[in-house]
Write a structure and sequence with these properties.
By secondary structure, the protein is an alpha/beta fold. It has three domains: 201 residues, FAD/NAD(P)-binding domain (3-Layer(bba) Sandwich); 110 residues, FAD/NAD(P)-binding domain (3-Layer(bba) Sandwich), CATH 3.50.50; 100 residues, Enolase-like, domain 1. 33% of the residues lie in helices and 24% in strands. It is built from 14 helices and 22 strands. Strand 11 and strand 12 form a beta hairpin. Helix 1 packs parallel to helix 9, helix 3 crosses helix 4 and helix 3 packs across helix 6. The longest helix has 25 residues. The chain starts with 5 loop residues before the first strand and ends with a strand. The structure holds NADPH dihydro-nicotinamide-adenine-dinucleotide phosphate.
């Protein structure tokens, strides 16, 4: 039996890697984890958490306005970007510290250095070689930008969190989660925002009604969404940028942010060299147990490009540690995972879109509510909420639930339990409404609006 320095060596101390390391250590495994940046990974350091803090900040703008018709006199509101960024940084530092304490408390050795794989049981880290019976790759992803002339003048979400000042005019490129979320953040904080999307409508893959509804709500808030808009080049002109589109249009701005997808951060790790199969996207090919083509090497989270969400990476890490170091072997079910887009207003979805359900050849009952939330009857804000259920006509099982509007992410989390359990429309209806809420619409939708 070969003797190794560790039972488990994890590369990448993001949400997934940290969970796997701690759970494995809890089973008595000798574990080390390497991190070349800051412990916490994308979600904590430069993703979900700071994004949501900025999103809260952006919401106050409307809250001050909405308060007036409720009888409040609000003085002139001013916003200071530097204060927000400093306080956000303080909170991220705090969370970074908590993550480090959690690792130490679990007796996981933290090596704050880049690790590279040498062979199926050896990594080079901080100038020395260490061996482990098992290696776990949890290195996440990194923003990917098209290589057009002048792309070096653009920023990504990584830099957006550390801008010296709030740009007066910003262009956001992309139509996915990050682009839509940052368009709302910058707009809410007072910047003039143009979002450029190359396709027909933002949020490809989401329910079509959700996409159109959100785009219309974003437009009402002043975000200029240009579809079929592809950037050809970016030129610097003093402190400003000129962005030339492929159709010849030129747009001027102070900053341009690319949110055109993320690439698994697997380059230069030595993976292919030891026999791990990588896809063209750079993603690590794994089986249901997160095992790569090399039996001692597993991979979890965004670097495997399965469902790129923090809770999924955490679950994959947990399943790995339970299965390899514990007594319970299980695999993550990647079906029917709820997600939210923290746009303004936000989106919450779980299950199939109408188009995806029809694509499966099903006859459907579609239920829908499109209404002005109670809050805005008095505030006077022209903002609406959309709720939609996609129901299989034959079985009456709710295949998908979709919402755009205030609190959608909070509401969809609870709805996701029912959808995951395979609840029928009648079981939704059997739940008595909580009144007055927006969420009650999900249990009071009476009549199908469209039949497939
Ligand atoms: P997405 O893959 O969601 O979206 C990328 C967008 O960029 C798409 O609209 C895509 O267009 C467009 N695009 C891609 N390449 C180009 C190009 N060369 N030129 C112009 N446009 C291009 O990526 P994001 O960066 O927004 O987010 C990455 C992932 O992170 C998400 O998929 C999600 O899993 C996760 N995430 C989750 C969040 C949440 O849960 N709230 C928040 C943020 C991120 P097209 O549609 O035509 O392909």
């Amino acid at each position: 039996m070969p003797q190794y320095d560790y039972d488990l060596f994890v590369i990448g101390a993001g949400s997934g890697g940290v969970r796997a390391a701690r759970v494995a250590a809890g089973y008595g495994a000798k574990v080390a984890i390497a991190e070349e940046s800051r412990v916490g990974g994308t979600c904590v350091i430069r993703g979900c958490v700071p994004k949501k803090l900025l999103s809260y900040a952006a919401h106050f703008h409307e809250d001050f306005e909405d308060a007036r018709n409720y009888g409040w006199t609000v003085g002139e509101a001013t916003f200071d970007w530097a204060t927000l960024i400093a306080n956000k940084d303080k909170e991220i530092d705090r969370l970074n510290g908590i993550y480090k304490k959690l690792l130490a408390g679990s007796k996981v050795e933290l090596l704050e250095s880049r690790a590279v794989i040498v062979d199926p049981h050896t990594v080079e880290v901080g100038g020395k070689r260490v061996t482990a019976k098992n290696l776990l790759i949890a290195v996440g992803g990194w923003p990917e930008r098209p290589q057009i002339p002048g792309i070096e003048h653009s920023i990504t979400s990584n830099e957006a969190f550390h801008l010296q000042s709030l740009p007066k005019e910003i262009i956001v490129v992309g139509g996915g989660y990050i682009a839509v979320e940052f368009a709302g953040i910058f707009n809410g904080l007072g910047a003039k925002v143009t979002e450029l999307y190359r396709g027909e409508q933002i949020l490809r893959g989401f329910d079509d009604e959700v996409r159109h509804f959100l785009a219309a709500e974003m437009a009402k808030k002043g975000i200029a969404i240009r579809t079929h808009a592809d950037v050809a080049r970016i030129d610097k002109s003093g402190a400003r940028l000129n962005v030339t589109l492929k159709d010849g249009a030129v747009l001027a701005c102070d900053a341009i942010m690319y949110a055109t997808g993320r690439r698994p951060k697997t380059d230069g790790l030595g993976l292919a060299e030891v026999g791990v199969t990588l896809k063209e996207s750079g993603a690590i090919a794994v089986d249901a147990a997160s095992q790569t083509a090399v039996p001692s090497i597993h991979a979890i989270g965004d670097c495997t490009d399965r469902v790129n969400l923090t809770p999924v990476a955490i679950r994959e890490g947990h399943a790995y540690a339970d299965s390899v170091f514990g007594s319970r072997s299980w695999a993550v079910d990647h079906k029917t995972i709820a997600s939210a887009v923290f746009s303004h207003p936000p989106v919450g979805v779980v299950g199939l879109s109408e188009a995806a359900a029809r694509g499966e050849g099903r006859a459907l009952d579609i239920y829908k509510a499109d209404f002005k939330p109670l809050k805005h009857t008095i505030s006077g804000r022209d903002e609406r909420t959309l709720m939609k259920l996609v129901v299989d006509r034959q079985s009456q099982v709710v295949l998908g639930a979709h919402m755009v509007g205030i609190d959608a992410p909070e509401i969809i989390q609870a709805i996701a339990i029912a959808v995951k359990m395979g609840a029928t429309k009648q079981q939704f209806d059997a739940a008595v409404a909580v009144h007055p809420t927006a969420a009650e619409e999900f249990v009071t939708l009476r009549t199908p609006v469209a039949a497939g």
